[in-house]
Design brief:
By secondary structure, the chain is of the alpha/beta class. It is built from 8 helices and 11 strands.
Length: about 230
Amino acid sequence: MHILVIEDDADTAAYLAKGLAESGHNVDLAHDGREGLFMALDQPFDTLVVDRMLPGMDGLAIIRTLRNADNKTPVLILSALGEVDARVEGLRAGGDDYLVKPFAFSELLARLEALVRRNESAQRQETVLKVDNLEMDLLARTVMRNGQPIDLQPREFRLLEYLMRHSGQVVTRTMLLENIWDYNFDPQTNVIDVHISRLRSKIDKQFETPLLQTVRGAGYVLRSES
């Protein structure tokens, strides 16, 4: 899992980062609310751990902003506020789970794993992806833009599916190599550039508004300009 921890207490943040890394997960840290929100919007994560009381922007405001931006990344709220009303408020703000401090690390890890499983199951049940007038039917294995069918090779289909599932978010070359190609694939190869170029020619070339964009020095993003 790739996990973003938004926690301003240095000891708690270090404890979480160490434990999650030792459990085999990639961890990014943010120590204030605004930094955490920027990171959560800037790249995809499998799940977020969000402290409720944060400088700059509180945890519930972060979650509401993410949900208003249609960011569905699962969120586990951490808080010293354990009253029923506080937990209900956190869940109604868009949190997926709520864990009261102090907590057992084993429970936190189990809750994160459950959130990711639930999210992956929901994604598998999603059969149609849409970005602007680009539509992918996962069951029929078809792609159309503005009503016109687009013929994609299997790898191009997987590449586009990944980009559509992370629409509006910058996807790095490393992320593509890890999710579309083998982990041991040579990162210096131009295979990604070749496939991106082919995909762009198929989904953008004949249409007025380009959807697939290159973010120099960062990666690629599929998004609507409307």
